[in-house]
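Dear H.,

Thanks for agreeing to be a second pair of eyes. The structure we're designing against is below in token form, covering all 320 positions.
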């Protein structure tokens, strides 16, 4: 049983000004993250512009992260379709590149109403069989290209033997608590990971035992401390850290929500974790006013000092 009850940042893909992977930037960025105590890093997911990377680029990112991690935490690879054949191929690639687990993205076929059980089940079972890796299911709000699974589908997916966790990212606390009930009723242990950047601390208090968040690539150490405070029921720390992180998250995920990838890269550049903030079209850069808002939000969250640690990591020193 793979233990994923902890903080799993979904990492960005550092890019050069012309939109190519900045391979030289990956090692220092990963070093900075690992030093903050995550249980795993998620690679090639939406925060990392995974859908905009080629197959070869996704394999290269996994290899670069695996080398930089050097066994100090797990690696979760995002995989998806659009067809079962594509999902299987991507899963095999991730397994060959050294991923420890797979986050299985919902695909367009799952948007059909009502969703056929055999469509969703067959897709996930094929990926499980092809990869031989533990699976993390993924419920994601449709506004971000995901799907909300009916309870009969969730119950069958949770029964797949290789499923070890589910990321619930409906951004809806009612749906989240409904998922908690389905997970509790499952016949095998499954880790409930929050993907809800709009109620992070609350989702821990509601029963998430870990988080797989793009936002957790910012303030990773604070996310780790928040989860630890929830576990020991130190409510003063929970309230303080939760409020601090949520204020920053609300800036990163402000409308239009699709710009969160560009905002996250800007924040990481301001912190010194990556040298540039380029995104790959069709994603676009944000304007100067937004950059200023992010800079102020980082300062208010007490994260401004992290830049020197990231710079030290890129030079080969130990992160703070």
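And this is the sequence the design step returned. I haven't edited it by hand at all.
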């Amino acid at each position: 049983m793979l233990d994923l009850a902890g903080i799993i940042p979904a990492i960005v893909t550092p890019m050069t000004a012309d939109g190519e992977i900045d391979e030289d930037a990956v090692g220092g960025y990963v070093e900075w993250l690992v030093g903050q105590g995550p249980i795993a890093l998620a690679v090639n997911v939406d925060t990392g512009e995974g859908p905009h990377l080629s197959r070869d680029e996704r394999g290269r990112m996994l290899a670069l992260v695996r080398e930089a991690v050097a066994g100090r935490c797990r690696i979760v690879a995002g995989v998806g379709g659009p067809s079962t054949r594509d999902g299987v191929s991507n899963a095999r690639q991730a397994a060959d590149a050294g991923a420890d687990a797979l986050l299985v993205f919902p695909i367009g076929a799952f948007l059909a109403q009502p969703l056929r059980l055999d469509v969703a089940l067959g897709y996930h079972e094929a990926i499980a069989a092809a990869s031989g890796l533990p699976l993390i299911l993924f419920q994601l709000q449709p506004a971000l290209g995901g799907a909300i699974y009916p309870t009969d589908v969730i119950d069958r997916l949770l029964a797949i033997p290789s499923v070890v966790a589910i990321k619930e990212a409906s951004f809806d606390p009612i749906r989240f608590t409904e998922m908690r009930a389905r997970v509790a009723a499952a016949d095998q242990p499954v880790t409930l990971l929050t993907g809800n950047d709009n109620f992070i601390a609350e989702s821990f208090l509601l029963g998430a035992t870990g988080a797989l968040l793009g936002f957790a690539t910012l303030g990773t150490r604070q996310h780790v401390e928040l989860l630890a405070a929830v576990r020991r029921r130190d409510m003063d720390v929970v309230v303080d850290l939760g409020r601090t992180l949520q204020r920053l998250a609300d800036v990163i995920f402000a409308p239009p929500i699709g710009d969160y990838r560009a905002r996250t890269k800007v924040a990481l550049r301001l912190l010194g974790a990556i040298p540039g903030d380029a995104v790959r079209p069709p994603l676009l850069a944000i304007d100067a006013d937004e950059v200023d808002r992010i800079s102020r939000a980082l300062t208010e969250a007490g994260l401004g000092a992290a830049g020197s640690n990231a710079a030290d990591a890129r030079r080969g020193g130990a992160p703070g």
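Two observations from my side: Residues 7-314 form a domain with the TIM Barrel fold (CATH 3.20.20.70). The chain has one domain: 7-314.

Warmly,
E.
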